[in-house]
Amino acid sequence: MSKKSRILVLLVVILSVVTLSACSTGTAQTDTKDETGVVEQAVNDYFANMPEDIYKIDQVAFVDKVKAGEAMTILDIRSADAYAQGHIKGAISMPWGPNFAENLTKIPNDKPVMIYCVTGQTAGQTVLLLNVAGFDTKSVNLGWNLGISKVEGVDAVTETTVNAFDASVNTEIDADIQKAIEDYYTGLSDVAETTYANYKITEDAAKAALDAKDASVTFLDARKADDFAKGHIEGAVNIPFGKGMETQFSTLPMDKTIIVYCYTGQTAAQTVAGLRLLGYDAVSLNSGTGTAATGTAGWTNKGYPLVTN
């Protein structure tokens, strides 16, 4: 073999090694939860196609529908003990947590699904997850404690009867979405003993992070731009909750914990669920900035300040 031929062979070998190395690192598929992009697309569609009612139903309107006997599946995602003490007529107990994901296939998808929790925040997370899974779902405004239980005449549609799913129902869920929702709830165990239990953070813990100028934390204000301008948590960025907000998610840092807040915590919870499915470390601020409905809960009800700069 001539010297020129040996050089050519050597170059081919070197090129082959470099190519194989690139394939084994930079161009290989990474071990992600959403290799097909199905989950990401479903989350983006959730926000892109957001209806005017923002996936919520007023508590009075909900009780009226129950009284009228409208066809719907009602899920009570409070604890089993709370359910036993009294729940909306026809509601099925499906406590929020890992078992929730395991029971998705039991939910019928041929009629609307209404869900409620204690104050609306965990239902806010769940309403996104269920819609992403293909269910036409709305959460009841302010949950049981602050909303439903205060509706005039609700006693007429409150019961202690234990209701069950139709055993014949076996709804098909996309495998990638099912896995993502299972991982979502499994992740609760990782934050159970931290300040981020249930993917929420207390007002006090959030204020402590702010005062400490914790560089690993950033605040996202999901309220309307006008309200943000009137006063917001220091350093917060504003992405108003609503149709199309998903187009701005890419501006958020992937390497920080994003504390999302709104008015009462419900729409922030929807945002948190979406962000977490997209790979962000997001949690919602307990009861948001606070309103009369949240009583002593919420940022301003705690006496914490908002800034305008």
**Portion in beta strands:** 5-15%
CATH names the topology of the largest domain as Oxidized Rhodanese, domain 1
Major sheet: 5 strands, parallel
Total helices: the number is 12
What is the domain total for the residues? Answer: 2
- Rg of Cα set: 23 Å
Low-confidence stretches: 1-32
Per DSSP E runs of 2 or more residues, the count of β-strands stands at 12
CATH superfamily of the largest domain: Rhodanese-like domain
Order of helices and strands: HHEHEHEEHEHEHEHHEHEHEEHE
Helix content: 25-40%
Q: What is the mean predicted local confidence, pLDDT?
A: 89
Structural class: alpha/beta
What spatial form do the alpha-carbon principal axes imply?
globular
Strands ordered across the widest β-sheet: 1-6-5-2-4
N→C terminal distance: 76 Å
Indicate the CATH class of the largest domain: Alpha Beta
Question: What do these coordinates show?
Answer:
The protein is α/β, with parallel strands linked by helices and 309 residues long. The protein folds into 2 domains: 38-176, Rhodanese-like domain (Oxidized Rhodanese, domain 1), CATH 3.40.250.10; 190-294, 3-Layer(aba) Sandwich (Oxidized Rhodanese, domain 1). The protein has helices at 3-24, 38-48, 59-68, 80-85, 98-102, 121-132, 143-147, 175-186, 188-191, 203-211, 225-230, 266-277; strands spanning 56-57, 73-76, 87-88, 92-93, 113-116, 137-140, 158-159, 200-201, 217-221, 237-238, 257-261, 281-285. It has a 5-stranded parallel sheet with strand order 1-6-5-2-4. A 5-stranded parallel sheet has the order 8-12-11-9-10. It starts with a helix and ends in a 24-residue tail after the last strand.
